Task: structure prediction
Amino acid sequence: MLVRSNRRQRILAFISASLISLCLGSVYSWSVFAARLQLENPDWTLAQISLIFSIMVMTYTVTAVWAGLMQDKFGPRPVALLGGLILGISMLLAAKCRTLLGLYIFHGILAGIGRGMAYATPLPTVLKWFPDKRGLAGGIISGIFGTGGLVFSYIAGLIISRTSSVYAAFGWTGLIFLLVIAVCAIFLQNPPSESNLLHNQIGCNQSQDYTPREMLKKPVFYIILLIFILGAFPGLVLTSNAQLIAQVFAGLSSGEAVRLVGIISVANGIGGPLFGFLLDKAGEKKALLSLLLISVFAQLMLPRADNFYYFLICSGTIMMCLGGLFGIFPSLIANFFGTKYIGTNYGLLFLGFGISSFLSPRIAAVLADNAVQAAKEMGKIALNSALSSAFQQVFIIGIGLALFASGLVLVINKPENEGI
Result:
């Protein structure tokens, strides 16, 4: 059993990790900011605006690798603190920008660095404190991360409605990040070495501890990375375009679409603990296969969703699956490669999210921009029809990628076992 002081530290670490994850989950509220950016800057294309998001998430995931190495070496507290400061200040600077280049730098690169540093700390810390329930504990943190989209969609929407400015929303959310992450970082710490005896007492699902270099020599790591890239595609398309897709497929008003973005963030939050629990009970393969096949079905139905509730169910299911990836993969990496280097090892896997975040919104935005341009050149008025066709093509791509990823799941095994 953990002694009383360790139990108190574990609770404080979990609460701190939860609040940091909630702030970082604001990434899922991007479509609210994107829609307002386009309204305030009508000369900017969807592809140009989506590039802000793509740069931010790509920088975020690349930074997470280095930050994971730093948190493995120095602990989570200084890394989370520095990340929170950079993120908060970069958002305050983005609030002063009125050019795409400025937003690419402050909201894209600098905010991405801050997010990556802060993100590298909550999950590895919690997985070390809860070795007996990695799937559930990691899933809850991932779920809170997903719920951040709901919280910050509401906050951003409220600020925008009162100020009529997306830049004001950048500033106020930056201030929140600065205060919350900095305070929570103080209480974020790894368990003392003696509490690691809990592994031996409970017989949890533990693997050999692989260094990052050793992990990168294992073919199974690259299969897992590819599954992450492919599985995240539909959820990331929705994350960056949810308002527009809701208006195109279901004919929702702008206000209804904003409300929907918040609600599906709850589904994202549910996915983490749900699939994390399934991983603990049924194993990695069954959890991943279930997630990918559910995603396929939801993508098949989404273009047919012609009203608010039908669209809510389909889009919410896709977002639940995106959240579920974060309930599965941190624990999978810990189960396959051990927890000693979990910060760096998971950071390397998290590159898959960055790659998918860069490609997925770009593919959707380019197809949408091309459809709109073609409709204008042909003198058509029904731009919604052109956009609907473009997004249907996007989700057909997503279905193919998810089915391919399902096949890959069948061949993964722990490194110490035979096969891939």
User: Anything to note?
Assistant: The radius of gyration is 21 Å. The domain at 9-190+204-409 is CATH 1.20.1250.20 (Growth Hormone; Chain: A;). The chain has one domain: 9-190+204-409. Residues 342-377 form the longest helix (36 residues).
